[in-house]
Design goal:
Radius of gyration: 18 Å
Number of domains: 1
CATH architecture: Roll
Distance between the termini: 56 Å
Strand content: 5-15%
Shape: globular
């Protein structure tokens, strides 16, 4: 089969894959670092990249993992239990270090939850993450600018960790690099161009999930954190 035919078939197949948002109440399988599971997507692809760059640099520097999850609703589970279950089932943070943070945003409920792992509770206490959520995530709801709200929350949390986290005590390992086949990169580039032209960039977000970074490290939640909404 000629390469051009293979490329065309691959494009057709990938574009035919439906992007199915997480059903209400389901606990999703999430990946490093931003998971926009809302329908329609809340963030543009470049906004996701901006947030993930901060998360990656923090992970690389300290070993701390931040997960961002955006859903339409957490009902009937509720934002607090939903966040705990997402954290627990996906193992956010490094195994044995429990140094993970989950930022959960529920669009339809206009609610949020920041869940903190055991290894970070002495830095990110309930009062501190509550303030970060109110200052940033609630701004996103109030002004319908979730990118600014989430990016601000990630930056504030990352700064607290960089300023106060003992890397030697908490442990540190570089996040695993992602290797992609050159032919796959070529195909993905063509797909990106086609979809960008067709959708003017907004619905490129689901395509990001074809090339995921990988899973989280196996940490546990400490049950600490804060939630809120407007």
């Amino acid at each position: 089969m000629r390469p051009v035919h293979l490329t065309f078939i691959t494009i057709v197949l990938l574009m035919a894959i439906p992007f199915t948002p997480c059903a209400a109440g389901d606990i999703p399988e999430i990946y490093l670092y931003v998971n926009d599971l809302a329908s329609p997507p809340v963030l543009f692809s470049e906004e996701i990249s901006d947030i993930e760059n901060v998360c990656y640099e923090l992970d690389k520097t300290t070993g701390v993992e931040i997960a961002v999850v955006i859903v339409n609703t957490t009902l009937p589970t509720g934002v607090d239990m939903y966040a705990f279950e997402v954290f627990d089932e996906n193992g956010i943070g490094k195994e044995g270090k429990d140094n993970g943070v989950l930022i959960l945003v529920s669009i339809d409920e206009m609610a949020w939850r920041i869940e903190v792992g055991y290894g970070l509770e002495h830095i990110l206490n309930d009062a501190k993450v509550g303030r970060i959520g109110r200052d940033n995530l609630e701004y996103g709801f109030a002004y319908n600018d979730h990118y600014v709200g989430i990016y601000g929350a990630v930056l504030d949390i990352a700064q607290e960790i960089v300023d106060n986290y003992d890397v030697e005590e908490g442990g540190h390992s570089d996040p695993e690099p992602v290797y992609l086949d050159r032919r796959l990169l070529c195909v993905s580039g063509i797909i990106l161009v086609v979809v960008l032209i067709a959708s003017r960039g907004r619905f490129i977000t689901p395509l990001i999930y074809v090339f995921r970074r990988g899973r989280f490290g196996g940490g546990r939640s400490g049950g600490g954190g804060a939630s809120g909404g407007i």
